[in-house]
Amino acid sequence: MTRVVPLPRPGLWLGSAVVVVFAALVALSVFRNPNIRHGVIAQYQFAPAILRGLELTVVLAVLAAAIGLVLGVVLAVMRISPSAILRVASAGYTWLVRGTPLLVQILIWGNLALLFEYLGPFRTNDVMTPFVASVIALGLNEAAYMAEIVRAGILAVDRGQVDASLALGMTRGLAMRRIILPQALRVIVPPAGNQFISLLKATSLVSVIAGGDLLTAAENIASANLHTIELMLVATFWYLVLTTITSIAQHVAERRLGRAHASAHGGR
Amino acid sequence: MVRAQGVRKRFRRTEVLKGIDLDVAAGEVLCLIGPSGSGKSTFLRCVNHLEQIDGGRLYVGGELVGYREQGDVLYEMHERDVCRQRAAIGMVFQRFNLFPHMTALANIVEAPIRVRREPKREALDRAAALLARVGLAHKANAYPSELSGGQQQRVAIARALAMQPKLMLFDEPTSALDPELVGEVLAVMRTLADDGMTMIVVTHEMAFAREAGHRIAFMDDGVIVESGPPRELLSEPAHERTRAFLSRLLAQPAR
After folding, report:
1. Sequence-separated (6 or more) residues with CB below 8 Å from residue B157
2. What is the distance between the alpha carbons of residues B63 and B138, in angstroms, rounded to a whole number?
3. What is the CA angle A160-A165-A168, rounded to 5?
4. Helix count (H) and strand count (E) of chain B?
5. pTM of the predicted model, to two decimals?
6. Mean local confidence (pLDDT), A67-87
7. Searching chain A, which residue's CA lies closest to the CA of residue B168?
8. Domain ranges of chain A
9. Angstrom distance (rounded) from CA A183 to CA B139
């Protein structure tokens, strides 16, 4: 039996060694650091206040994603409509929302009462609670990004699919629902998953209007006991749990979509 | 069945159809030939209003396509009425355009169920019969990607037939196929012709045009130069342009 001897690659080994040592040093500096009270982390990791914040973060992200998806599809369809006014309106919305910091948008929605004292018959501060302001700000922001993602997905579907649908007597709406969007989904899911992960983390920004999310909860506790780093680590753990779950779900969704239409660009 | 009177179509500045006059009788198979860019496909797409015409009149089954005429004015039809007209006209595309996220069977029943609101059972039974008719009964649950080009095109024909059209349009149905797969598609089209389906076929398959076509129309530069029975038109074309096109075509090795 002939033996195969791979070419020695000392650079690769050296690089790997450096990475391992560096990672070990970072881990040690955290775990052996006398300034970090591990007891505090353990105490607050599952504290009711933290879990309430966690719950609100999830609710915020899901609601904002739902608004973003629905409004995003509407904006995407407007963007490719025959009406110039609808196209410009959609493009203008995306331009405005993507062109300004989310933090600024959250502050504006959270302080809407300074702009309008009343919303119809209601006092603005009664309607625009920090929670409502957070959902609106995050949802409207999400929509601008989803619009671009959905639009790219729709444009990726072959023109011939529309021709075939219309030739069979389908209305444009039916063709969009049954033929175009299901195929666009394949292109939409990967970036939409990334977008949702960004959104999960972006919910932390609503702590500036006392949104009551995970970070708000952690900050409130930290400002009382001054264990800032410990509470940030508590929050970090939960954010990582959420983003990890999302990543796995995204992976599964991509695999299943890929199977259902291995087809689209398969053989002829 | 189809009557075109001075049909005109332009894309921006270029006039693609410069006044097409054409009649196709019920049960007739008309083959439309001509160089690429002569407007054949565009004309076909006007017949079911996938493209809107800029002038003239187009009737299918005695009904003006896509417009309502009142006095001297053409009013564009409501989408729902255009869809009703299209549902009665089958179309087969060069690149098949099957729905890739659906099985062969689902491709065929989609429009009967969603557009014509047929009962599911009935639509499925008819779809199965149509698949058998194009020789693909065993591929009902295959996705388009699992089928050869010829098989995909036969499913596409079955899909169009599922709407029980009174007219079938074929837009270069064999041009995207490997040579050895052309025959199976043409065979299906031939049985359709024999069953008395009214067909307009844009094609480069002269053998098919000669044998299955009742009439050939030669198009060049947005007009129909001449039309006539296949044997006459192919053997002794009246016009110089037709003659030049045919000799160019015959000079090439098959296709």
Report:
1. B92, B134, B173, B185, B188, B189, B192
2. 39
3. 125
4. 9, 12
5. 0.81
6. 94
7. A167
8. 46-264
9. 22
CA separation for the pair B143, A263 (Å, rounded): 7
Distance CA B53, CA B59 (A): 12
State pLDDT tens for residues A179-235. 999 999 989 999 999 999 999 999 999 999 988 899 999 999 999 998 999 999 999
Which class for B228: exposed (0-12), middle (13-18), buried (19 or more C-beta within 10 A)? middle
Cβ contact A235:A214 at 8 Å: yes
- What is the ipTM, given to two decimal places? 0.93
Helices (H), chain B: 40-47, 79-87, 104-114, 120-133, 149-161, 179-194, 206-212, 230-235, 240-251
Which residues in chain B have their CB less than 8 angstroms from residue A168's CB? 86-87, 110-111, 115, 159-160, 163
> Which pLDDT band holds residue A121 (cuts at 50, 70, 90)?
confident
A46-264 CATH pick, 1.10.3720.10, 2.60.40.420, 3.10.450.50, 1.20.1250.20:
1.10.3720.10
Separation of alpha carbons A143 and A151, rounded Å:
12
Contact A80, A153 (CB under 8 A): no
Task: Give the CA angle between residues B219, B220, B226 to the nearest 5°.
Answer: 45
H/E element, A11: helix A10-31
In this structure, chain B runs to a length of 255
* B159: its two tokens: 């899909």
Distance of alpha carbon B180 from its chain centroid, rounded?
22
A231 contacts A222 by C-beta, under 8 angstroms: yes
Q: Which residue reads 């779900």 in tokens?
A: A249
Question: Which among B114, B141, B147 is the top mutation candidate for probing chain A, defined by the most A β-carbons within 10 Å of its own β-carbon?
Answer: B114
- The pairing of strands B63-64 and B223-228 is unpaired
Residue of A nearest to B83 (CA): A169
Are the Cβ atoms of A160 and B149 closer than 8 angstroms?
A: no
Q: Which residue of A has its CA nearest to B161?
A: A168
Size of interface A-B (CB pairs under 8 A): 92
Strand, coil or helix: A213: coil
Chain A residues with CB within 8 Å of chain B CB: 158, 160-161, 163-164, 166-172, 174, 178-179, 182-183, 260-268
